[in-house]
Amino acid sequence: MTASNDTPEYDYDLFTIGGGSGGVRASRVSAAHGARVALAEEYRVGGTCVIRGCVPKKMLVYGAHFAEDLKDARAFGWSTEKCEFDWKTLRDNVLDDVDRLESGYTETLENHDVEIFKERATITGAHEITLESGRTVTAKYILVATGATPRMPSCQGADHAISSNEAFHLDELPKKIIIAGGGYIANEFAGIFNEFGCDVHIVNRGDRLLRQYDEAVRDRLLQISTMKGIKFRFNTTFEYIKPCDEGGYFVKLSDCDEEKADLVMFAVGRIPNTDGLGLDKAGVELGENGEVKVDRFSKTNVDHIYAVGDVTDRVQLTPVAIREGQAFADTVFGGGDPVAVDHSCIPSAVFSHPPIASVGMTEGEAKNALGSVKVYLSDFRPMKNVLAGRNERSLFKMICDGENGKIVGIHMIAPEAPEMMQAAAIAVKAGLTKEDFDATTAIHPTMAEELVLMR
Ligand SMILES: Cc1cc2nc3c(=O)[nH]c(=O)nc-3n(C[C@H](O)[C@H](O)[C@H](O)COP(=O)(O)OP(=O)(O)OC[C@H]3O[C@@H](n4cnc5c(N)ncnc54)[C@H](O)[C@@H]3O)c2cc1C
Ligand SMILES: NC(=O)c1ccc[n+]([C@@H]2O[C@H](COP(=O)([O-])OP(=O)(O)OC[C@H]3O[C@@H](n4cnc5c(N)ncnc54)[C@H](O)[C@@H]3O)[C@@H](O)[C@H]2O)c1
């Protein structure tokens, strides 16, 4: 594209606010299409996923899993009695790798001639952006890719609690931690802290964990997590958090006696970052949770302002933000037909211990949508767990359309379930049937072979 020749009246063809998964992809690809691009990032280039989300979280999950592997190793003949865990070593290695990734993302943008402003940006006019330093610039298009921020409930003393942002930087591990929430972050960090030997308590406002996942895998996670020592309380809210003179906090939950904990963490959802962004100055419409409202091409009600990623509160996942950023760049600067992201059948995973992975409809959703469904189950103890004496069963569940056998959902809880699900999701997205799976020869001995052997 040759937008630079078409728009000499603006400083840039595109100004992206937010250097996370969506903003970086959109900026890099727009620049590759020939646009003159600038990007503002108020914290660190790479955004939530790279700096304080998926990537460092997954490294902690790996680190935590050694606790079980080292224990299980004894049944395989290894002596591991003298093994010790040092939190600071893991924390610092993870933070060093985050630094490395941040440099990589910055370099990629610079190699594509994207100008980076390492400061907060706000919209101050239809095409005008003002940087924290006071500098004002103009752009033909503005992309809002500001992500989301942890929601902090408003009980007395809520400011004593940490969010996932701080969890990566702790000076020491808490002996006892109370985690509010029952979603992705609560379950992932409960698994991490529990494996490191902390006494973990999950407190959920509602009556179920991970409500968007299939009931069978959710129940299995609750059962295994309880067996591993994580404590759960449902239908409970926080009344207060008060600091204790000798360190830690007094915590009062509804219907419970006051108790002591070393740390309280809130993981109760994330709210779109639109506060004070100046979207009102440009007439951009927001939804009731502050999310930027967009059409299927990620365009707001204002023709030259687009939004991608968590700030639109469609699906808060990195690969979705990246796809939306790519589609935006191709639509606006690619010179071809507009590209919309298909938000159906998105696979996802919870990196709990063990992890959950899922694609498509749950059994309940399928029954509501289709009426007649056929469900196949495989409930098994992985070979490695049998030898290790680990009493943890895995569960695979396949939901098919009762009329034509088309697979409409697969749900798993098993070691490496997310790795297996990525491949299975291709088949579900492509509309394959149970017969197609049955026609595929198993790879033996694997856990994944259960996918083609289900009855
Ligand atoms: C603990 C945790 C674990 C997660 N794990 C996973 C996972 O395993 N898999 C997965 O798919 N997803 C995961 N996610 C979700 C994933 O991180 C997000 O969906 C993804 O990062 C969204 O990308 P984004 O570009 O929309 O926003 P972000 O990556 O949040 O980027 C937005 C950027 O905008 C910047 N910004 C905001 N306002 C301004 C402003 N006014 N001026 C300048 N800069 C601004 C912010 O500093 C931020 O860097 C996790 C999230 C968390 C919190
Ligand atoms: N593996 C992954 O892909 C991954 C990992 C982490 C985060 N994420 C993304 O980040 C988003 C945010 O994660 P999250 O775990 O914060 O939110 P979530 O929406 O997954 O879960 C929020 C949970 O908090 C509970 N809750 C709400 N208010 C509460 C209160 N006052 N007290 C106690 N419980 C309360 C809800 O019932 C719900 O169970 C996710 O929706 C997901 O899109 C993805």
TrEMBL record:
It comes from the Bacteria. The keyword Nucleotide-binding applies. Residues 13-325 form the FAD/NAD(P)-binding domain. One of its GO terms (cellular component) is cytosol. Signal peptide: none annotated. InterPro entries: FAD/NAD-bd_sf, FAD/NAD-binding_dom, FAD/NAD-linked_Rdtase_dimer_sf, GSHR/TRXR-like, Pyr_nuc-diS_OxRdtase, Pyr_nucl-diS_OxRdtase_dimer, Pyr_OxRdtase_I_AS. Its cofactor is FAD. Residues 346-454 form the Pyridine nucleotide-disulphide oxidoreductase dimerisation domain. GO terms for molecular function: flavin adenine dinucleotide binding; glutathione-disulfide reductase (NADPH) activity. Belongs to the class-I pyridine nucleotide-disulfide oxidoreductase family. NCBIfam families: PRK06116.1. This is Glutathione-disulfide reductase. It comes from Alteriqipengyuania halimionae. The lineage of its organism: Bacteria, Pseudomonadati, Pseudomonadota, Alphaproteobacteria, Sphingomonadales. The gene is gorA.
